[in-house]
Amino acid sequence: MKQKQRKRRLSLLAALLLLPVLAACGPGRAESCYGRVTEVQRAPDGSLSALVLDTGDEARTCVLLTPETHVASTVEDLLSEEAFLADPPMGVEVSVLFAEDPPPQTVTGEDGTRYSAQTADFLWVEDARYPEDLTLSDGTALEVWATGTQENQYRLSDGTVLLQEFPPQTDFSNDYVGNIPLSELPPALPDGLRRYYQDRGPLYDLTEELERADRAFCQDPERFQRFRVEQRVSWSASAPGAHYFLTTLSRTPEPRLLEEIQWTDAFDPATGAHIPTEELFSAGRDQVIDALLAQMKGVEAPLAQELRDAFQFSYLCFWPDHLSVWFPAGSLPSQEHSWGWSFGYDALSGVLRPWAVPVEEPPEL
């Protein structure tokens, strides 16, 4: 098999070529296919010759591999092309783009099933299992799988995914500040971002997320939908003396409900140092919440007092043309869900330092 060195290019090619046709794995000649490895066949010389794939809904297909098949892995750190070709693990998902010319061949599976097998031109390894499993408090064992989309999946032994986890982002090499790639800015900024977010780590408790998903599955396995937790960072605004980056935490607090919480962090453009949010203001906490409450027309006194008591600087999000404040669910006694309000920056005149006020136009070099 041919192993391409430019795996990122292959992965992009996979996304472009396979998305419109990946479902085509049924009878007749297909253009592409994906599924989980359930059987491996080898040629007399021991080389990998065919894979039987479970394509879902109790359907299976067979894929032929030849010395001309190009193989790439989207999870190379965990399962390289070499390791896959030497011993394809059962349950691993692969995507296949079939060659146009070779006619299908009949292949007999281990159980006697006869397949009309097509030859793979390209094959991508899409996920891999970590060697260590997890055990929940009720004794449930979970397999941990990584995918090529920087996702971890926590699965039961039958393949049911309890939780999708997109871990905290620490690589900002492809990010932008406005319209400018971070790579074109002074290196102190991306270095500062990486250090800060690596040190901060996840803003969720993975064990709690897994236990919550397990309870939901046990209560209603037939209607269960996988839970999700994702923590991502993106640029949100820039001021003369600060670049603002937004952390978005998305999680499933209960079945079929996705909750989103956001925080903004400020960084010095020259040094990349993190700037605590309270240092963006020339006034203290009480004066800041007073300035915000003065703009919240129609908010009655009991709720206003709850807002005053619960306010934290971390609830503020900075955008190019406005500031928002979001109180997470549970922070306000009278509110069942999260609660927010948006303000123009003129509302904070005199309390927000001038160098911290975002500009509407993205910065330019």
Class from secondary-structure proportions: alpha+beta
User: Any idea what the radius of gyration is?
Assistant: 26 Å
Average pLDDT value? 89
> What are the segments in which pLDDT stays under 50 over at least 5 consecutive residues?
3-24
Report the span from N to C terminus: 46 Å
Query: How many strands?
Result: 22
Q: Quick one: overall form?
A: elongated
Tally of helical segments: 6
Strand content: 35-45%
Largest sheet: 9 strands, mixed
User: Which H/E pattern describes the elements?
Assistant: EHEEEEHEEEEEEEEEEHHEEEEHHEEE
Overall helicity: 10-25%
Give a verbal description of the structure.
With about 375 residues, this protein is of the alpha+beta class. It contains six helices and 22 strands. It has helices at about 5-20, 80-85, 190-200, 205-220, 285-295, 300-310, and strands at about 1-5, 30-40, 50-55, 60-65, 70-75, 95-100, 105-110, 115-125, 125-130, 135, 140-145, 150-155, 160-165, 175, 180, 225-240, 240-255, 255-265, 275, 315-320, 325, 340-345. Strands 9, 10, 11, 12, 13, 16, 17, 18 and 19 form a nine-stranded mixed beta sheet that branches. It has a five-stranded mixed beta barrel with strand order 2-3-4-8-6. It has a three-stranded antiparallel beta sheet with strand order 20-21-22, with no helix packed on it. Strand 11 (about 140-145) and strand 12 form a beta hairpin. The longest helix is centred in the middle third of the chain and has 14 residues, at about 205-220. It starts with a strand and ends in a 22-residue tail after the last strand. The relative contact order is 0.09.
